[in-house]
């Protein structure tokens, strides 16, 4: 676990005429000291939790995909901090179903439903310091793509474990090599079809199982059809050792498929 200070997130420029934002929200293991102080786990247990909860190598995956694009290179919005600090993809209020297992915008429990933070923790400082600035910056990035190209396409880059973890609310469903998370308003059928074609060679592509939905800034959510979105969940045995192991040869194949999808957008 690296606790060195650094910016909470980065927007990495692509080509000016690209509408695509590759969003990497869960790829980091970095926890700043101020956030570490509120976590109950000992260092060894925290490292093990990071193995389970981190979408390892997804930052590198997005970087390789962007570099492989032969048309307009996508923009990349990368979270530099662990989702154990805050999870920027959660609703910050009662709309978030993962609050039922202690995994709202600020996690209070682990992947194995053990206590991560104490019951009396005031979550507001973490939300003010990390969650809201991230949301504002992501909103601005989407607005910039709309202003320049007339639309924005948010492609979430995630991974998930081969075997379900205890925190999963929908872990009994199919676990295909590639899961496509969709939103009924922001994921048009054409976008889903393009992704299914791009990932056709991975042995199976499923939709909304075991994870559903796609990230859209709240400013645009459910109201602005210029913003389309898709979540790509890669089963980890496809490209890495589990849990928290090194990337394997499959990483290049996944990156090529992402690049192919981006090129069609």
Written overview of the protein:
The chain is α/β, with parallel strands linked by helices and 265 residues long. It is built from 6 helices and 7 strands; from the N terminus they run ββαααβαββαββα. It has helices at residues 33-36, 43-53, 58-68, 124-149, 189-198, 250-263; strands at 9-12, 20-24, 75-79, 152-160, 178-181, 205-207, 227-235. A 7-stranded mixed beta sheet has the order 1-3-2-4-7-5-6. Helix 5 links the parallel strand 5 and strand 6 (205-207). The longest helix is centred in the middle third of the chain and has 26 residues, at 124-149. The model has no long low-confidence stretch (mean pLDDT 95).
Q: What string, H for helix and E for strand, traces the elements in order?
A: EEHHHEHEEHEEH
Low-confidence stretches: none
User: Which bin fits the share of residues in helices?
Assistant: 25-40%
Largest sheet descriptor: 7 strands, mixed
* Average pLDDT rating: 95
Q: Supply Rg.
A: 17 Å
Layout of secondary structure:
Layout: E1 9-12, E2 20-24, H1 33-36, H2 43-53, H3 58-68, E3 75-79, H4 124-149, E4 152-160, E5 178-181, H5 189-198, E6 205-207, E7 227-235, H6 250-263
Parallel strand pairs: 2-3, 2-4, 4-7, 5-6
Antiparallel strand pairs: 1-3, 5-7
Helix pairs in contact: 3-6, 5-6
Structure, briefly:
This protein has 265 residues and is of the alpha/beta class.
Key features?
265 residues, alpha/beta, 7-stranded mixed sheet, 29% helix
């Amino acid at each position: 676990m690296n606790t060195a200070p650094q910016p909470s997130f980065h927007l990495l420029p692509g080509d000016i005429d690209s509408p695509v934002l590759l969003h990497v929200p869960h790829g980091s293991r970095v926890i700043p000291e101020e956030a570490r102080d509120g976590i109950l786990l000992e260092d060894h247990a925290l490292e093990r939790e990071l193995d389970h909860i981190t979408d390892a190598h997804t930052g590198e995956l997005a970087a390789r995909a962007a570099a492989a694009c032969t048309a307009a290179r996508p923009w990349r919005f990368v979270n530099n901090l662990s989702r154990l600090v805050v999870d920027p993809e959660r609703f910050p209020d009662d709309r978030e179903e993962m609050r039922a297992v202690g995994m709202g915008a600020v996690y209070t429990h682990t992947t194995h439903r053990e206590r991560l933070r104490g019951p009396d923790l005031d979550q507001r400082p973490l939300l003010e310091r990390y969650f809201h600035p991230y949301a504002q910056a992501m909103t601005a990035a989407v607005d910039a793509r709309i202003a320049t190209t007339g639309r924005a396409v948010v492609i979430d880059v995630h991974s998930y474990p081969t075997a379900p973890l205890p925190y999963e609310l929908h872990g009994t469903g199919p676990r295909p090599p590639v899961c496509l998370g969709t939103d009924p308003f922001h994921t048009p059928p054409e976008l889903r079809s393009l992704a299914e074609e791009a990932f056709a060679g991975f042995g199976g592509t499923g939709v909304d199982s075991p994870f559903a939905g796609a990230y859209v800034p709240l400013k645009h959510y459910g109201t602005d059809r210029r913003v389309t979105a898709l979540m790509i969940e890669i089963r980890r045995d496809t490209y890495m050792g589990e849990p928290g192991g090194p990337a394997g040869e499959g990483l290049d194949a996944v990156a090529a498929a992402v690049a192919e999808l981006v090129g069609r957008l």
